[in-house]
Amino acid sequence: MLDPATVVSISELNRLARNSLEREFPLLWVAGEISNLNRAASGHVYFSLKDESAQARCVMFRSRAQSIPWQLENGQQVEARALVSLYEPRGDFQLNIETLRRAGLGRLFEAFARLKARLEAEGLFAPERKRPLPRFPSRVGIISSPHAAALRDVLVALKRRAPHLTAVLYPTLVQGDSAAEDIAKAIAVAGRRNECDLLLIVRGGGSIEDLWAFNEEILVRAIVASPLPIISGVGHETDTTVADYVSDLRAATPTAAAELATQGWHEAAGEIYDLGIALGRAMHYLIARQQQGLDQLSLRLVHPAARLARARDRLALLGSQLDVSLSRGLRRHRDRLNRTALGLSRSVPRTEQRRGHIGLLAQRLDAALRRQHQKRLSALDNFAAALAHLNPEATLARGFSIVRDADGRLITDAAGLRAGQTVSLHLAHGGAEASILNSTADHGPIATE
After folding, report:
1. For residues 187 and 223, is the Cβ–Cβ distance under 8 A?
2. pLDDT of the residue at 329
3. Given CA atoms 166, 172, 176, 177 in this order, what sign does their dihedral have?
4. In Å, how far are 179, 313, 378 from 318, measured between CA atoms?
5. Structural class in CATH, domain 112-261
6. Are 55 and 35 in contact (CB under 8 A)?
7. Distance of CA 448 to the CA centre of its chain
8. Beta carbons within 8 Å of 420's beta carbon, 6+ residues apart
């Protein structure tokens, strides 16, 4: 307590007064009208708050003023969170403003809190009450103003993520005294028509007064009663309304609401792409494996023409070997004959008597050689005839045909045929398709058409 006899300076007096005011009055809400508004170059804002009979100077420092989401103007009715103080250099009584809100917001926040608590107690916010959203909707209903930027954002997002979707607009007010009732009617109309798979309620950001329609009980009850699942995309990410709590899903923004509605289609596109990649890899692997098997089978498969070519080469080789063998035999017999003749010429002089016998022997030898030669030639002819007989083209030329089933398998047994089966016939010239009328397993006739 200050001694009344003590003399103090003006600075000390102002300091004591400031300390006393700040100690006596904690932070409190003060309502009034803005006047004498002045924005200093430093960023601080100076103004007065007044009512019908009084006013008080106010200062809002730069760091606090930057957080106000609207433009301050003279004549605005506001509620200020203020510290009662005194500006010591001039001795001016003033309010140091911490934050501002438009007049009446306190009542709105209280109404919001009461309605939220009551609906939560009813279980309307419970997750088990929420309905699942269809993963692949074909028609999406949009409840919004036809002139809202939020509607354009939603349509752009839908076209970008799922251009095949059909969007149905249920035009309504999204701000004002009758907006809540208008939106509730639009929800009811969409439910009666039942032409959409889900509904989007969208609106851009704004103040709590701008979004108050989404805190009205009539709208909240309409959302709960809707037969269609609802995504709420109201305001910005920081904006929260009671409609967000009762909707089946809450989106941070209108664009996010459109993205949530098309999430299934968007994810499916990625899944289909991944499956396509996996299928392509599997097909490439399967084709490569089948081609490898085909290469191995082709090594084992010999064309009849190749077989004939090898047989011709074998026949030519045998002919050459026969010629060599005959030549060697003739030389051996000739050498023997010469030796015999030489021996005869050196023998006793009965050469003349044996000359006739030698001539006969020579004739018999020539005849034997000719017979041997003719025998070898006949054997060669038989080999050639046998090879010609094995030629499938020659067999076909004699009126035969090769019969295969629809899978290309060779048919050699009538027991494997059934009436109505389609077979292919390979003839000496061309081919034909035939249908089996009947068949017998005892090598009897097979009727085709």
Report:
1. yes
2. 85
3. negative
4. 109, 9, 13
5. alpha beta
6. yes
7. 52
8. 435, 436
- Give the separation between CA 427 and CA 248, rounded to whole angstroms: 74
Provide the residue count of the chain: 449
Task: Kindly tell me the burial class for residue 50, based on how many C-beta atoms sit within 10 Å of its own C-beta (0-12, 13-18, 19 or more).
Answer: middle
- Residues 202, 148 contacting (CB under 8 angstroms): yes
Q: Shortest CA distance to 176 belongs to which of 145, 221, 143?
A: 145
Distances in whole angstroms, Cα of residue 228 to Cα of each of 200, 248, 255:
10, 10, 20
Chain centroid offset of residue 62 CA: 52
Name the CATH superfamily housing domain 10-103: Nucleic acid-binding proteins (2.40.50.140)
pLDDT digits (tens, 9 = 90+) for 363-419: 888 888 889 989 988 888 888 877 777 777 777 777 788 888 888 888 888 877 888
Sign of the C-alpha dihedral, residues 406, 407, 409, 412? Answer: negative
Amino acid, res. 338: N
Written as one letter, the residue type at 358 is I
Structure tokens at 322: 């026969």
More confident residue, 61 or 416: 61
User: What are the two backbone dihedrals, phi and then psi, of residue 221, each rounded to the nearest 5 degrees?
Assistant: -65, -35
Residue 311 corresponds to which tokens in the numbers above? Answer: 């047989």
In the block, residue with structure tokens 């047989």: 311
Residue ranges of E strands in 299-429? 402-404, 422-426
The rounded distance, in Å, linking the Cα atoms of 315 and 383 is: 8
Helix axes of 351-390 and 304-346: crossing angle, nearest 10 degrees = 180
Tokens of 413: 């047994």
Closest CA to 95 of 38, 10, 11, 29: 29
Q: How far apart are CA 143 and CA 201, in angstroms?
A: 5
Give the separation between CA 390 and CA 393, rounded to whole angstroms: 9
CA distance 44 to 55: 20
| Per-residue pLDDT reduced to its tens digit, 119-140 | 888 888 888 888 888 888 989 9
